[in-house]
Amino acid sequence: MALMITDECINCDVCEPECPNDAISMGVEIYEIDPNKCTECVGHFDEPQCVQVCPVECIPINPEHVETPEQLREKYTHLQATKTA
Predict the structure, then answer these.
(1) Burial 39-56 (b: 16+ CB within 10 A, else e)
(2) Which intervals hold domain 4Fe-4S ferredoxin-type (predicted)?
(3) What span, in angstroms and rounded, lies between the C-alpha atoms of 25 and 4?
(4) Does the predicted model carry a pTM greater than 0.70?
């Protein structure tokens, strides 16, 4: 399950540097999460770091990108292999 940032985002800039997969970037109006890069921090941390630091709690699970923990682990492995290649 990739995460998403809702329109309650206040553009406080704290989530982007916390993402170990570089999945968070500034969109047209608010920050956005690339579901192809978001592993909910699987492989890096026990909990999603962006959710931990968000002061307005605007980062829920994206219902359009539901993934099992195993799928998230596979995505993490693939992203790490791509980084080192």
Answers:
(1) bbbbbeeeebbbbeebee
(2) 1-29, 31-64
(3) 11
(4) yes
First and final C-alpha spacing in the chain: 25
Contact 1, 61 (CB under 8 A): yes
Q: What is the DSSP letter of 30?
A: S
Q: Which domains does the chain have, with CATH numbers?
A: 16-84 (3.30.70.20)
pLDDT band (50, 70, 90) for residue 1: confident
> pLDDT tens digits for 16-66?
999 999 999 999 999 999 999 999 999 999 999 999 999 999 999 999 999
Q: Enumerate the β-bridge partners of residue 32.
A: 25
Determine the longest span between alpha carbons in the chain, in angstroms: 37
